[in-house]
């Protein structure tokens, strides 16, 4: 099976695309255009549209029968131009086998996961780290990671409502487990306690802070719009910031202030689930559209869901056009249209350019078309 994508405007964060501007695919992988037969290949003319490596959304909740908030993986995946999604802690070790069976194995979208440091995951309500007895031990974690190749790290939610009187203790425990296994931790930040000056020093290079640009008090910026020292130090150590839009965790104002003073790259993700897909989140492309509204370039927005996400997740195949890697492709349009988009704080801003999905190719196969 050979496929040739022609006449697209390539957005190629790694700058590895072929000079011809054409993308060739054979047997599910990217190959050089010269390697496929122009006579027998299926040619797709995508003139006017943009063509990028398959988008990665590193914070979603898709455990439909496991967590109350879960949404269908393909609805927020390939049907929205996203080829790889990462469920961020919906499941702990208790629900992992069923997550494989009912979610990973049954969708066109590639589903990876951060494993909740609580055995229960989000399944039993939203204070999963309040009882130390629920925390997964090193041996259990090792067993889980050995059994499930799609795990990319651990998830620990550091909000008062999640940890109750445990403060940072669940994160200290997650740190110990993550170090023993050599995997990163994605932490969620929200309403304290625990406070960021106690949380951030526990993070190491490669760990991810999702909801980094929330608009609540006690965030990464102080009242003057400067990063608090612990946030600056964390970035210097190689800790990564991620958007994780969600119902309550993305503020235009916070990201705009950050952008005004700092160049540090971040990843874009949605924290999408059943209750926020209509508003305020919409989709990964809607979240990227909000970046355009804040004057980020299209290249930046695409890099934040491809090359950067790949690096953050330690992936090798996804998010690139590199020859020999799995042929995941996102075809999209940037439409000139006025649209009012709301952030998690209820602030509405009007954008004049909207990113919209057009076609999704997963492992060389067209799995969705607008
Ligand atoms: Zn989440």
From TrEMBL:
GO terms for molecular function: deacetylase activity; hydrolase activity, acting on carbon-nitrogen (but not peptide) bonds; metal ion binding. Zn(2+) 1 binds at residues 59, 61, 155, 271. The modification N6-carboxylysine is found at residue 155. Coiled coil: none annotated. Zn(2+) 2 binds at residues 155, 188, 211. Gene3D superfamilies: Metal-dependent hydrolases (3.20.20.140), Urease, subunit C, domain 1 (2.30.40.10). Pfam families: EF_0837-like_N. Keywords: Hydrolase, Metal-binding, Zinc. The record marks 157 as: Transition state stabilizer. This is Amidohydrolase/deacetylase family metallohydrolase. It comes from Listeria rustica.
